[in-house]
Please model this.
Amino acid sequence: MIYLDYSATTPINDEVLDTYVKVSKNFIGNANSIHSLGTKSRELLESATNQISSLLKIKPCEVIYTSGATESNNLALKGIASFYKNRGRHIITTKLEHSSVSETLKYLETLGYEISYVELDKNGLINIQNLKSLIRDDTILVSICYVNSELGIKQNINEIAKILKQYPKLIFHVDGTQALGKIDVDLSNIDLFSFSAHKFFGPKGIGCLIKKENIKLTPLFHGGKSDSIYRSGTPALPLIVSLSKALRIALNNLDNKYNHVKKLNEIIINNFKSNKNIVINSNDECIPHIINISLNNIKPETFIHAMEEEQIFISTKSACSNINDVSSTLAALKKSEKISSTSIRISISHLTTLEEVMEFLKIFNEKIEYLNNLKRGN
Ligand code: PMP
Model:
């Protein structure tokens, strides 16, 4: 099997899975119980939170555990919109967001919030002058995806964050789900930051919303205090400890892992460039982990299943989107409907080997040839 869908999810790291099993077996107490089993669990919870906060250079009280980035994004956007509604009802975002942001904002629109979309250049980078010009007295929130999940477009978040700091009443939310564990992230000028553990070899079903201490939120779930007043429920200790371990492992040797992925990306892109049947949608602003293409004359689902017959797993634009939909990212970049509705995403990681890439390319080229011949009736 050759797995090339790491942006949809990653396999759990063995050491992380081991931690999950050990914590599940050995820490049975509820971290909120006052007996000794509860205290033992509470201490482990606090040490995991301390580790996450030191890795991300934030305070422990700024970590809110969620079920994943979808919940983190919902909590951030709905929570801010509700808490600061008397300050204003205007929110700025982009057309490159994951559905857990874009659909949440559409929902807020139905409640009377106004959403503005910042202009993008041809590669999908935010036009900073336009962003500044959209800011009004009633703007409460700017929400921007660090790395877009379909093409891998990476925004200049540090530069944007510094500019937005000049507007003290404005809250800056970053969806960092496709960035954390792949590139260096600096949260110092970001108010809210969402991520999921399963994108960096952690377990599925756990994520975080990092919320700076001075920011307030209306919670989505009401109930007991749990480990944060912003998210009730018994702390998912095995998942939390696994997340902290996965994060530590993911951030270790980040540069070497990145360079490995970049080298493999170059091999794939160079091969694709020489094939006239392939349109490369990813550009120089994209992280090397994601390669998005469209195929002339071949339906993406036909191609993906043809690759699957050879045990090679690639994806349509994004696992969270409907296969027949037009890619909102490609549409935002003003690509034709044909390109926007036929994209394929190949996503690689530091675990991808050169041998896998060579085998993938060989079969990829053979399948294109075969499917084109079928079409021509040869
Ligand atoms: N944001 C981005 C950019 C994503 O890629 C994803 C997952 N594809 C999410 C949010 C949602 O993450 P999850 O499915 O883990 O809730």
The two ends are 30 Å apart (CA to CA). The chain has a mean pLDDT of 95.
